[in-house]
Amino acid sequence: MKLRKHLVLVIMGLFLVGLVSNAGVFDFIFKKGNKKESKQVETAKKAVELTMWVTPDAEHEADLKNIIKKFEDKTGMKVKITVLGWDIVWDKLTTAATSGIGPDVVEIGGTWVSSIAAMGVLEDLSKYYKDDMEKDYLPATLKYSSTVGVPGKMISLPWVTDGYLWYYRKDLYEKAGLDPKKVFDTWDSFSAAMKKLDAMNFKTDKGEKIPAFAHGGKNDWNIIHMMGGFIWQNGGNYISADGKKSLIADPKSVEAIKYFTNFARTGIVPKKYLEKDPSEIEAIYGEGGIATILTGPWFAAQMDKTLSGLYDTETDDKTSLAKSKFVYKNTDVAEPLAGSAGRYTFSGTNNLAVFNFSKHKKEAAGLVKYLTDDEGAQIAYAKATGLFPVSVAAVNSPFVTENHYRSAVKYAFDHDYVKVYPSVPAWGPIETVLTKNLGLIWDLVSGVDGKYTDEKLMKVIDETKREMNLVISQTGTE
Predict the structure, then answer these.
(1) pTM, to two decimals
(2) Domain extents for the chain?
(3) Which residues form a coiled coil (predicted)?
């Protein structure tokens, strides 16, 4: 997915936008098992061709086309898909929003939805669906379907989601005499376990030390989401629920930042890993080079594919493949840590929306509902992307319940462990500020800017707070 890694593309011109609402009512209802819906959809004008923009997360374009073909066969419509590169997607979205020229259906990262909606270009989808349709989706994934302060608007629907969980080498934990249930219980138990693992001095087959825990730093686009989980666990937050002020400098947030960064500051997380991106961290783990990582369901999907033999004929490096299979066979998953405020982790979504200047809004709403709610479509796309489905039907299917790793993600959703950021227009540029400034924190704990001190850390955090509040004031959120 990794939609989150690309939020640094957000441009400051977004600050000038304002909220507008849409009007108009249609009686179209896209509802499974509804005869009225079936008749309306199947008699749609065959001449209709819907256009759809998707991100590179839809890298399995052929799979997506096969999923959509069932919709085309049922409705007689055609869907033209365009995959946008991450280097141009934001410019394309904003250009479409300002010009009124764009696709009927568009994929938007969950944290971007409110920012695009603030331009007044996203159709209110609630008019096309049954009143209780929210029950068809995981509740947490609907948070980006509306905007804080604008009740009754459904400006998008979630397509796929994720959830950051712990993946660890159970064989190394066993050798160290560690009980995973106790390791991933509290902050204190996790810290103690990482120290013990570090002291075991486990080595790779190349004689290199296997760190107890590793993650990226300033080049890791997911790092703010990892840190966000720790902040929530401690009762803090990046921003207030109404989106009106930064909370990053509040004591609970600061305490969580210190806890998370302390692993790197004390050497549990070797400093060389702070230059890595998420893909590199996951690859090193797969080679047997790390004992514990925090990542999303795409990693579990990669493990499943490797262990199923999917790559057996696609690589000449049989030694490396055998090593990965050994590591993955000895990998297990654990739920978020429990801080003083509870167990929490970040979950992002990729959403689908309809531009309100589309000439086929009703038909486009039907495509959105099919992709986000149809059980078969949801399972097929989750398989293709390695992400997690959002429809209740798909989540309760054997595809999830009979898979160890996907069941762990389901458990996190079922127990309300997953959290998202407030759906406010300011969040897009705020995430840009966080990505930039938290990068400075990793330089600080690495000693790039001299010896670490809490005073230097607070200086960075206070500046981050100032910049976040400036963004909020410029978007008119406060």
Answers:
(1) 0.89
(2) 18-162+347-419, 165-345
(3) none
